[in-house]
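Chain A, query sequence.
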Amino acid sequence: MEGHPADPLDRFYDMLTRKGRARPRRNVFGVAQKLYQAGIARPFDASTNDFNWRPAPLARQSQEKLVAEIKSLWQARMKAR
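Chain A, predicted structure.
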């Protein structure tokens, strides 16, 4: 849902979760399946030593963007001292 604004129901559920009135589902299998299908993650298999595997390009781009954003925030914080 990245890039899409939260609808009123999403915001309401987020508020209930923060106040401890609702608990998000713990569907680890479903999350893992979506990550595998998107090419962001892969199942761990100790019998294969595939060191050439790389995450999907979109995941890599998102990761690089996040790292750059963190570095920028850190540099701004250090300059403010």
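The mean pLDDT is 81. The CA atoms of residues 28 and 34 lie 10 Å apart.
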